[in-house]
Structure formats: C-alpha cells, structure tokens
Design goal:
Helix content is 35%, strand content 19%. It is α+β, with helices and mostly antiparallel strands.
C-alpha cells in the first residue's frame, strides 16, 4: 500500500514539474529562478525527455515489479516532449530566405564575440558580406571595434562607432554598436540609465529622423544575478515603448521569458513594444548559443527586434562561423519599412 502511495506521489510531482517546464506562463513564473534556466533550451530538454521515455519504457518491459510506475513515467515524458515539439514547431525550425535588399531596407547583425575571440578579418568579412547597416557586438572591446571600423572604412563601408564599457578589466562588460554612415549621425543617450552588470547601448539619431537603436546585453540569469537579469529585461522593454526602435544583441533570454512584460507584444513573442524577428520569420526555435550544440538543441538567446513600423523580410542564425572562437552564433535580420 505504501509503495503505491509513494509511486502515485512521485508521479504527481513529476507531472507538476514537467508541466512547469513545458509552459511556466500558465502560473506566471516564467522569470523565476530555476524555471528560467530550464526553459531556455527547449530543444535539448525535448531530446532528454525522449531519451528518458525510451529508458523507462525499456525498464517497464524488463522489470515487472516497476512496470506500471516506469510506464507511467515514460508516458509523462512522451507527453512533455510532445508539448515541447509543438511549441518549437510553432516558433519555427528555420527559414533562411531573404528578399532582395530594397533601397530603404536595413540589415541588422549581432554577434557576441566572447571578448574579441574571432579574428578581426572574420568579423569584418561577415559585416561586409551581409551588407550590414547596424552591427551590435556584445562582449567586444572598444580597441577591437575601432579596428573593425577602420577596416570597414577602408573597404568602402564607413560606420560610426557608439561604444559603452562599464570597465576595462573584463571585455564582457563592453558593448559596441556600429551604424552605417548612410543613416546619419548618432549619439549615445545615457539619460535613462542602463542594464545592470553588463552594458546595453541606447543610440539616438541627432536629426531625429532615423530609428532609435538599442544594442542589448542584459546579464545572464545565473545565481546572484537574477535581479539584474530581470532589471535588464524591464529596461529593454521600456526602450521599446517608442514608435521607431530597432533592438538587437545577446538578450540572455528567450521568448518564454517575455510574456507579461507588455501585453501588446505577447502575441508576437516580442519584448515590450518590439516584435521578435526570429518569431515572425519562422526561426525562433533555432539556437544561437552555445555554438558547439546543433542549432535545434541550443538556446535562441540572440535576437533582432523592432517596433511595428518595421517588417521583417529575413532572419538567419549564421552557422558557418561556429569554429571562429565565440560561443555565440551571429544572427542577421533584414528589416523593411512597413506600409
């Protein structure tokens, strides 16, 4: 009798845990410690659940003493994996199609360089090859960014550098934004504060006509930094309250974590008033971190977002540079004025 009660209790707890891991938004705990870390890598979680289901199925087949218990666990894991696969399918496993770039289109590129790890020529070549108009480089030193800027200018693609470093000790505490000279002059706006621990750049056009550009890098949701991580998401969501905003960078978060920050953008999976480019183009299940994992097992934490005055006509997680030195993959998006 006790064994049956214990087995039932374990199954109930397991079902509750799996439900929370599958859709924490039901309980409004998507930004709570533990839940955040579990939901960041849905693809990997799905693979683990399927392996667990196979294991418990085999146990149920060979051991009559725990057959019902192991079979029930296998069923729970299969149901959990099914929910995860449904979510991932809805978000999109990858559509790398881009349209021919029109005169008013903007190409936005983001790459966390893990402290200048890629060769300079690799970063410059990526920017030139993608014809990027806006480049966000989290965890990148100003010295490295200025070398990139100089080589771009020599290649006929002059860009303005908007740097921000919280200190010169750790390159992780620097974020660089490069903006094409064709977009006019920009200046950094520090009047509304910033993200805790790691810097996010707010760049505004001096003539007031271009998009406000946010180079995002909130701190990762690790023990001791959860409040800073939540503050970073809140700060970024507030920046998306404008009418013409483009936000890109390593957000250390996925679509699961944005629910409730702004009701208007919940449907599109965006942050605040910004819509997520990967979600809108069928790429939101493609992982950008870590680069050592297959894309469908990784975490889609690198984003390009924009307010509704921009349409996304292309988005891609770039996999050709997985051995370039960074633990992140670059992401690139093509934006077109809505209308």
């Amino acid at each position: 009798m006790f064994r049956r009660v214990l087995s039932a209790a374990v199954l109930v707890v397991a079902a509750a845990v799996l439900l929370i891991a599958a859709w924490p938004q039901l309980l409004g705990i998507q930004r709570e410690t533990g839940v955040v870390q579990v939901t960041t890598m849905r693809g990997l979680l799905t693979a683990v659940a399927l392996l667990g289901a196979v294991l418990f199925t085999l146990i149920a087949l060979v051991s009559s003493g725990v057959r019902r218990f192991a079979g029930a666990l296998a069923l729970l894991l299969l149901l959990f994996a099914g929910i995860q696969l449904a979510v991932l399918t809805t978000r999109g496993a990858g559509d790398a199609a881009f349209e021919a770039k029109a005169a008013d289109d903007l190409t936005v590129l983001s790459w966390n360089t893990l402290g200048d790890q890629p060769e300079l020529e690799t970063t410059v070549g990526l920017i030139v090859d993608e014809d990027a108009d806006i480049v966000v480089l989290p965890e990148t030193s100003e010295e490295y960014a200025r070398l990139v800027q100089a080589q771009l200018s020599a290649a006929g693609s002059p860009m303005q550098l908007i740097p921000l470093s919280y200190d010169l000790i750790s390159k992780a505490r620097s974020t660089m934004v490069l903006i094409s000279a064709d977009l006019g002059a920009y200046a950094r706006d520090d009047s509304v504060g910033g993200t805790d621990t790691l810097p996010s750049v707010l760049a505004v056009p001096l003539d007031g006509t271009g998009p406000v550009i946010v180079g995002a890098h909130p701190v990762a949701p690790v023990p001791g930094e959860m409040s800073g991580w939540r503050q970073g998401l809140d700060w970024l969501a507030a920046r998306c309250a404008g009418e013409n905003v483009i936000l890109a960078g390593d957000l250390n978060s996925t679509l699961d974590h944005y629910t409730g920050l702004d009701a208007a953008s919940d449907a599109s999976g965006g942050l605040g008033g910004c819509r997520d480019g990967a979600r809108l183009t069928g790429n939101a299940a493609v992982g950008s971190w870590p680069a050592v994992l297959p894309t469908l097992l990784g975490a889609p934490i690198d984003h390009v977002m924009a307010t509704p005055n921009w349409d996304f006509v292309g988005f891609r997680v770039i996999t050709a540079l997985d051995d370039a030195g960074s633990d992140h993959r670059p992401v690139v998006a093509q934006l077109r004025p809505a209308g």
